[in-house]
Design brief:
The protein has 409 residues and is of the alpha/beta class. It has two domains: 158 residues, Rossmann fold (3-Layer(aba) Sandwich); 222 residues, 3-Layer(aba) Sandwich (Rossmann fold). Helices cover 25% and strands 27% of the residues. It is built from twelve helices and 26 strands. The strands form six sheets. An eight-stranded mixed sheet has the order 17-16-13-18-21-22-24-25, with helices on both faces. A hairpin with a 5-residue loop joins β11 and β12. The longest helix is centred in the C-terminal third of the chain and has 16 residues. The N terminus is likely disordered.
Length: 409
Amino acid sequence: MSEYFKTTFLPHRARCLVCAGDVLESLDGVRAFANHAQPSGAALQWARWLHAHGAHVTVIGPQIKKFLSADPGIEVLQSKSQGMRSLLDLIESLPDAYDFAFALCRSATLSPQCSFLHKIKAKDIAVPLEISVRPNASAFEALRRRWPTFGYDFEGQLSFHGPDSFDAGPCLERLRALRGAASSVPVQYARAFNLPNFSGKHIIVTSGPTAETISTQGDVLTNFSSGRQGFSIAWIAALCGARVSLVSGPTYVTLPAHPNIEITLVRSAEQMLYAVHERMPADGFVAVAAVADFKATVPISSPHASGAALKLSPTVDILASVGYMQARPKAVIGFAAETTNIETYARGKLFAKGADVIFANIVGDARHCKDSSLNQVLEVTAQQTLWHPLEPKGQVGVRVASALAKLVG
């Protein structure tokens, strides 16, 4: 570890400002531009390390309070929304009292010229869809104008931008063993019900978002999904005795630990499709993943050029590929995130995808999407429509298990 960092920086009780979280630029009601080029969770690891070594730490960014609620002594200031403009407003409102800043949030280098109010559906548009984009503002530059600032270089290493430069890369290596915020499925919700017996059954569950590369600078088109709902369903199915194949997109949430769960990590919709088909045959398939339904026809190579056009084409349809496959599972269940006309779209998806059940819910602007432990779903089958109350995701998982049991026997 850098001697400068140990002997000069921390002993003076430095006042440190850490900019953390994922900054999203909304494309429509459920999708947003993000950036996955930088390490996930490193900002919070740095904040905890700095605090543990005597620094006064303030963490700012979107949707970060939930990660630091168990860290007394670290001040948290959360921006009002998920976008860069809200973060910049927060930075501008801060006093000059900090000694150093850490620009460690993950933010897209691209931003759509305009965003759509409702979810874009491939069947309703011309293909490819052309989106005008512009260079995004930079939290790093906003911080650097006011304080000596640490930020990531293009190789993902932490470097210092101020009067005295030094290489703090080794510090990052020391932090890799630290863990971010964990998520667990509450056991009490599973035990409160008479759960089915899935012994001898094979259930495949997809979860989390997918990420489609849209620029050579690491920008991706993704859905704001934590993966908690899919993890809950996988865990409850395993608790019921099933052999579970969990296929997850990139997420910061701790993966469910159960001996019956086999986990496969993927990134894109195409990789998820391949992983699902590779694990067939199965008795049941539950498509919970928030798949980015579009991908770049050609990724943008110069994201800082004004007036660039991003051409998007549909990604593969994972749910339909399983719903209409020859060796179809007995149970095919899908999830639908909608911004309007939830029952109409859910019922249309039920038949278009060849599903037996669709669980649908209303979502808002991707910049303001709440990463919650609660969910409210509409359960749609060919025979009926059921509205369920707002409830823990673990309890929604129990409902899915009940639906699976009716179909797989």
